[in-house]
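Q: My hope is that you can spare some time for a protein that puzzles me. Underneath my words sits a plain record pairing an amino acid chain with its backbone structure tokens. Those tokens are not coordinates but codes from a learned vocabulary of shapes. Thank you; the sequence and its tokens follow:
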Amino acid sequence: MASAAEIVRNHEYDPNGVEYFVSPPKSEHIEVVPYDPSWPAAFAELAARLRAALGEVALSIEHVGSTSVPGLPAKPVIDIDLTVPDSRDEDAYRPALEAAGFPVLFREPVFHEHRFARGDSPPANIHIWSPDCPEAIRHRMLRDWLIAHPEDRELYAAAKFASAEQINAEGGVVMDYNQRKQPVIRDILERMFRAHGLID
């Protein structure tokens, strides 16, 4: 089980820790749109396809990220946390994922052995973790916190629009967009962790 110290620890993004299976992304347009009530159904469709492809290898499939929070604006891409017995064992899931239309684009061994896959219809980001991964726990906690705390939901929405506007004006990729809104996310996480008794 992940410890409190592991859950509250912030990791700094290290581009040198990313091993791409495809060409790295170039500058892209970031679109943040109002909440779409069809997103839960899109997740359900994707989850069914993942379960059909992976069977028992899929230990859990969670809808996370902004599209999982009713009322929160988001990029129109469904974020999914997929837990497998061992994310390092790519042979156990990668061929089945790719055959089902979810290519694995990169791995991050230094970041909880994270693997990342993408789906196109509907658009999806699939984050692949091992059991009890602290980052996956953070994702679920933040989702539930934002659902329950509209004031932080509004703060986060404003940060998303501001970050997207800046990236689209200056150029950048999704990771740059994520980095620009990170201070607001960390402020929210700190409040959340304190409320849960994980930090003083």
